[in-house]
Amino acid sequence: TRVVQGLYFKDSNYYRLPTSNKELDNLDQRFTDIKLAINSVTGSMVPVETGMLLSPAGVISIGVSVLTFTLNLLQFQAAAYLYWPYIVFAVCTVLQWLAMRPVKPITYRQQEKEGSFRYSHSRAREYAESIAFYRGETEERTRMQAQFQDVYTNQTHLALFSAVCSFVSGVIQNCTSYILPGVLVKLLTPDADPQQYNIINSDVAMIMEALSMLLGFALQYSAFSGTLQRVTQMVTGIKALPVKKTDHIHSDERLAMRGVDVIAPNGERLVQNVTFDIEEGEKGLVVMGPSGVGKSSVLRTLAGLWAKSADGTIVRPGDGDGIFFVPQTSYVLLNGSLRAQIAYPKGEECVTGTPPHVFSDILDTVGLGYLLTDGRYSLDQENVPWGDVLSGGEKQRLGFARLFFNCPRFAILDESTSALPVDLEYRLHRECRRMGISLVSVAHRPSVIPHHSAILKVDKKGWVLTKEKVE
């Protein structure tokens, strides 16, 4: 799990994978599948004797058993019996493989359907208020019940096929371990004395029993092969992503795009020949235009989330203290104190090493000081569901609190004040100016324009980019 998580969070793969590979659904479910896949190997969800098979001790034990009883047969000049256990084992393997073939795709579909079913409930929780305003509970219930029926039907098919496989596997193991050895020995040596018959029969039976254990494991493995496939698909998708290259010129004093075409991950060219140049300390630039013309896409390319075109140049600080992004809806940590929410993405060392008054002053600046003064919360209070506590406007204020705590030279704002009153918007932009933070903003509100020194207008007519100075 740690290895896959390392790949997932490396080079922004967690963002690039779902945007570039639409076939990989429900990545959160696939991470849960990793545990199931590991359990299928370690044996924590299968019988102990089966789980031991893939351990070094289990493999050595089976190998020693087969070798020992094979040598015993050679001592009794019973080499003819050596072929039959392996022939029977090969035939039984083919029969069991045919019986297990449907299990893998059914297991794969089961994990896929369970992931979609869980995701639907997560979305219903996330958009509960919108659904309630629409009075959409009947439609949501109908859709989720249909999804549950799919899960139930597929699970029934999986149980039936697993039962058939278990029956076939049990018959094969019993026949190969107890019945066939005696029949083979009796047919091949009808005149053998009882002592020799018993020894040869015992050796052949032990060889076939050891081999039949492998068939038993094959049944357990087939139940998880679909799960393993989903995990493998995710890892393969991550490794197939192109290596993330440093496609910008590093500069701590300048933020610029020069002749850059903005291209979506699917190859669609959204905006052509974007050109602007901002020096450290300038007010900055605001990108404006109708919805759907690629304004936010300019920011994604500038921030390095999208690869730029082969032509053109991007100049910006490296990732770290030089540049900071404030989205329209700030991400809220699932767990963590108010200190940790403000300090994000910096770690625990910044939280514990910063005096409390720094955090309280920032909260006052962004208009969230009442979270502390009314006595409901404290800076160090854990397990507060901030995602539910904070409204949309309060989350935007939290975004500016993070901006002021990190205090970069440049900030990228994507509709970051759309849910705030104009007077607070003015105070926040004025604080950015006081701290010397130069801005690149996307906005619809005309009230944002005075806080920038230039406007970059994007329209739909051939994706033409225009630029004009603010008077």
TrEMBL record:
Residues 87-176 form the ABC transmembrane type-1 domain. The keyword Transmembrane helix applies. The chain crosses the membrane at residues 53-74, 81-100. Pfam families: ABC_membrane_2, ABC_tran. GO terms for molecular function: ABC-type transporter activity; ATP binding; ATP hydrolysis activity. PROSITE patterns: ABC_TM1F, ABC_TRANSPORTER_1, ABC_TRANSPORTER_2. Residues 255-471 form the ABC transporter domain. GO terms for cellular component: membrane. Keywords: ATP-binding, Membrane, Nucleotide-binding, Transmembrane, Transmembrane helix, Transport. The keyword Membrane applies. SUPFAM superfamilies: ABC transporter transmembrane region, P-loop containing nucleoside triphosphate hydrolases. Belongs to the ABC transporter superfamily. ABCD family. Peroxisomal fatty acyl CoA transporter (TC 3.A.1.203) subfamily. This is ABC transporter domain-containing protein. It comes from Kipferlia bialata.
